[in-house]
Amino acid sequence: MPLRYVDFDKVQFCCFAATQVLQCAELPQRVQCGCLYLAYSSCTCCETARSGGRELVILGYCIDEYGQLPRSQIADYMLHSAATVRELLDLLERFAGKYLVFYSESDQFYIFTDATATMPLSYGMRDGCFYASTHPY
Question: Measured between alpha carbons, how far is 72 from 67 in angstroms, rounded to an integer?
Fold first, then answer.
């Protein structure tokens, strides 16, 4: 079966991350979270929060299961409600959807999936650089 062309910019829930500046023309949207450079499709939602040397990016569709927070406030709420990585991990139980959370503090970064990992993530190291992608292409 021949390989067919995929327009990644039209794919929802599509992102790529690396610890070096990305050369990924297929995903035109860009955001940085600490030392991670993220590229994502125009169809993928992105919410960011930054405070006191900490950064948090939500890519995908994340909603408050209590219905109290609009989507546009969730990243800020997560960042300001959790003082530690452990607290952030516990806090994620409150949110539903199909998303990834990228979190950075100091020189460390973390990537969390939604509770059921409906947005799969492949990752690895190559030539001293960390890479992660929602699609194996």
Answer: 13
Nearest to 112 by CA among 123, 122, 99: 99
Q: How many CA atoms lie within 13 A of 46 on its CB side?
A: 18
- Residue 131 pairs in a beta bridge with 18, 124
Enter the tokens of residue 100. Answer: 């990834």
Give per-residue pLDDT as tens, 69-78. Answer: 999 999 999 9
**Residue 130: strand pairing partners:** 125
Neighbours of 44 (CB within 10 A): 23
Per-residue pLDDT reduced to its tens digit, 25-52: 678 899 999 999 999 989 899 999 999 9
